[in-house]
Amino acid sequence: MIIIGERINGMFRDIAKAIREKDPTAVQEWARKQEAMGSGYLDINVGPAVSDRVSAMRWLCEVAQEASKLPLCLDSTDYDAIEAGLEVCKQPAMINSVPAVQEKMDRVFQMASKYNAEVIGLAMNEEGIPKDAESRVALAMELVANCDAHGIPISNLYIDPLVLPCNVGQDHGPEVMETLRQIKLLSDPPPKTVVGLSNISQGTKDRDLINRIFAVMAMANGLDAAIADGCDEELIAAVATARIILNMDIYCDSYVDVFKNQNL
Amino acid sequence: MIIIGERINGMFRDIAKAIREKDPTAVQEWARKQEAMGSGYLDINVGPAVSDRVSAMRWLCEVAQEASKLPLCLDSTDYDAIEAGLEVCKQPAMINSVPAVQEKMDRVFQMASKYNAEVIGLAMNEEGIPKDAESRVALAMELVANCDAHGIPISNLYIDPLVLPCNVGQDHGPEVMETLRQIKLLSDPPPKTVVGLSNISQGTKDRDLINRIFAVMAMANGLDAAIADGCDEELIAAVATARIILNMDIYCDSYVDVFKNQNL
Fold this sequence. Notes:
Chain A is α/β, with parallel strands linked by helices. Chain A has ten helices and eight strands.
């Protein structure tokens, strides 16, 4: 599982301030820190309070890339902001995200094709998030078909089955696990899979514990990536361990450090 | 996942001494402690150094049952010792274990039928432990067929896919995960599944971390039980969390305590 470090997000006070004052310090500190702890991408989200999302996204992408060589994951529901980010990305980025809604898929897959970007596709549509695995997989199939129709390799598509907090949507848990497994049967090569990890623990008491246990259980069902706290030491140790158990990295006593230093 | 508490084992010095001196103190302390921390069974193993395994097993079973109301898991390759334990068990026990070897299956399933015991069946035979999932599942099928031939409900059979240390048998990890999944397709109702948890981490540096991450990954693939350290607080928290994520227990903020107190 690749960690998409979630910390450069205007929802956090230091990043909101950085955007407001055009001071790159906090952004670049988090970029460097997440890279040094093993994140594979940097999520970039201007947050809810920004008036000019297009210029904020462009600026965040520019300053983050000055501090880190990681690819960016452009996180916004404003596709103009995403396109502004794609224009300044020095290497292929990830678009986060598109639901299985036709006009949105048209716009996003077109951008992805133009900028050679990866895409996170959400297993939801106008009617919301389905409860059972079958309906989630049907929406994943729509995303696969649209991705393919734009000539984008399916391995550039990350399906997010959509995780609900375990204290309110507990019955979604097994359905998400089943969805992750079934997505790997949709095509050959199959799409990749991703989750927004912290969703599982919203409103619960021991959030970090629930996050990391969910992450490795999902990995056992084929999860490829998660937008997550790339500075959570125990999450990183759990993910590195799961990679050993799944025979994805070779065991050595210092495998957690090896995982962290993979980008160096 | 049910924890079969592994601590009453003559391989530990205090238990070996207890058996030698016929002093039940240590045995009963561990029986009570494991029960209080949420174990569902007590594994009973006389250890390697005992000359009279039959009388040692009988004595361990008797004194453990004076301290705890948990069912016992009789752990020996000496079937006479197991039968001696079964004779004194006050409630249905678990036999640990039998490989897919005909004369051994004949003896063990006959005992299981007579004493209404559950059975752990190992996915191995005279040729050893197979590497791939398919061969493990074929051996599981032999165990299922023999169990059924003795009129024992298949839900009383626990298949152990056999876990190897991740530092020497790393390629077995994904095969074990796949085996756990496929075993659930063998019959309806399917057999249960069990592992000897500590095997995965033998010879590694951070054993507890690897044990608990493997446990919850295996749970995500249907693992029902594990012979494990029933006093490992972090393992217990991980297992309790996995049960929440799989919607097996209802979420509340104190779910770890609820898991521990399930036997009270």
